[in-house]
User: Fold these one by one.
Assistant:
Number 1:
Amino acid sequence: MFQDYLARKSRENLDTLTGEIGNGLSALTLGLVSPRTEKKMYWWGVPSVGLMGVSDFLTLFLLYYYNQILGLSAVLAGLALFICVVFDAVSDPVIAHWSDRHKGEFGRRIPFMLVGIAPMVLSCLALFVIHPGEEQWILFVQLTVLMSVFQVANTVFAVPRLALGVELYKDYSKRNQLLGTDRIFEIAGGALCLGPILLLMPDWDQAHLYPWAALWTCFLLGWSLYLGTVRLSAVERNLLELDRTGKSTDFSLSTLLREVRSLLANRNWMTLLIAFLFFGVNSGIQTSDQVYLNNHLFRFDPRDLFWAIPLQLGGGAIAAFVTWRIARGRNKRNLVLIGSALSFVVSQLLIGLMAVDYYFGYGLMPDAGGGVLSPLWWIWAFHGGLNGAIWTFFMILVVSMFADVVEEHQASTGPRSDGLVLVGRNFVTKLIASVGVLLAGFMISWAGFDDADTAELKEVAVYRFVVIKVCVTAVLIPMAIVFLARYSLTEAQHRANLRKLGYER
């Protein structure tokens, strides 16, 4: 039945193989995705609506919901997320290699993508709907198990999907366009997911609204993943399966270990991997605390965030639109180093200045708590837009750098391993970011949030937390930049690899 379904969908969607999207589909992205974009690039980007929507939703609400709403201690919540992400990170290389070596009538990627959709949607919904008990150990087990299922299902879908896009577009500059298009869909997904939630949620402690918010998020996730996957079903079956270069090796743990060893010997891959060790720890700490900062530092309610969406996400959308154009003919590494340096300066600037005001009384920043259109709200919104633009610029190019290692690795070893090469970033980001999440849980607890039962105590706790965040970034980001500077793969070398493999004449 499953094979018959895939066969029917691949026949129905043959039009995805060729042609441009035209004005109609471009209009759905407000023209940010050009009408001249290839259909297969467009439909490859569609699942990012749900993937980024659910990522933003969980990043914003999950830790706060389990800690402040359900009552799970911040340390146990951080430990639960640490365990599930470590489990997922270890499974990443196996799933990636299995996808690389899978042989079937419908290609290497689409079957995995379809299998991952249902468990991802259901486990995400269950996180906010199922409540078997209020004891600490029950909440801990619930969070650990459900997030483990979600993370593994996410890997089953996301890793083959990214590998599919990289295999479709091998050109040095075209990959930047692919990832820029993807980022536009990610930004749209974040806005579509969080916009209605923030508008309808009067404050952060409305426990009865969280299940409804999860239901909306999961609907968006399932719809976008299914739509994009079935539209791409014809692409792999009728296009990529004609190219058997580097795809003859079967799946086995011995070949997985052999290819991992060869990747560990690849200087460019290892350089990016080590850089992401530092980015991962920093990311895990920085992304687990947004509701704490919004509620107790800026004192914004959800609706204040809603009205800032155009400014907050607009910077990222503009960056996604122009990055691949700026990068055309330029060295990706040099641009990434510029983006990293800018992020180092900008990312913690706002909360750092607020901490200086709090501890030293300089009066540099407006007062918190003024709500939408207050002076602090404008500064916060524009800072978020600038930060989003820099981060978008950085991520498009650094993922493209990882993708270029695919052909370098293939040229030196023979097998084509898109998934395994690309999963290195996922693996180390998840594994090390889980350490960051665990540390964030300890930091939140140490700062005093678990016992802060008055507004005054929560204010003291949040400023303690801000000081740690700023110090961590000041150490980790420069260390990551040092390793990024060692990446040496250029456009000329990439084209030489493509010619060697027969992809380019």
Number 2:
Amino acid sequence: MRVADRALGTGRPEGRPHSRPKLGRHATDEKIPLWGGCPPNASGLHSRPLMCSDTMSMLRPRVGSQARLYARCYTFSMDPFFETSFGGLRVRFALKDGDLFVSKDDLFAAVSECFTEGLRPHAAMFVDTGLSMLGDGEDRKVALLGGSVIGAVIHFHAAANLLDSLSGFTDVESDDLRESSFRVNTLRRWYVDTILQVDKHFGRTFMDTLHSVKDRLDRINPPLIVHVSHTEGFWTAECDELGLVTEAESYEELTDRVWAVAPELAHENLPGFDVDRLRLGFQHIQAANINAC
């Protein structure tokens, strides 16, 4: 279950909220390869706050041991976009219908660069298969990517899911796949930090990002609705799909109980349901006062 779900009240109670990394103001012209021998999280890629004019501003960000980043941001009155780079590869972001998207071609080029020579010919298969499994048609659109350039874009959360999946092959027999996965993890960490810059450029708040993630998850993996009521000092939860009815003296105790039994009930009452993808949405209802005049 994603941590973003927990922050929005729809995920597992044991999740922890994300913390936003601090932004630094360091710069360097030193040329550093995309990946080195440093372990994950040895150093981050944090850029100073963006200051964009109506034309263009050039940023010199802090550079870690695994990547070099130069960012340019443009603001157009009709459709804004943001351009940055991973190593020497351009990566463009666009705001479409109030939501954030990344160029599919740019993401593919960055992923391909992370793959070893032996796996690079199969990069397109990994990307397309991953996007098909992790999302739906609404994750793919077309948007302005600079000037009069229009291209295919992918929802930023779908792209993050893809990078997270591709960076998870670290315990496999294939040396090529394992090495490629470690390299994609560098791209994944760069991507997470870059999203903070892009959100700042477009004026998106952290809550905007969380709501965007929730809306996407609700679309591709709708939660099972748990109706919650409070009467006579007790909290009650009911879910018809799960065959669930339970009560507790506090709301926190109630949600803990629901999550404790929900996976088993889903397995029993929903044949073929993927329990690992279980999401719950708690909706409060007002209990009727049967003694009212």
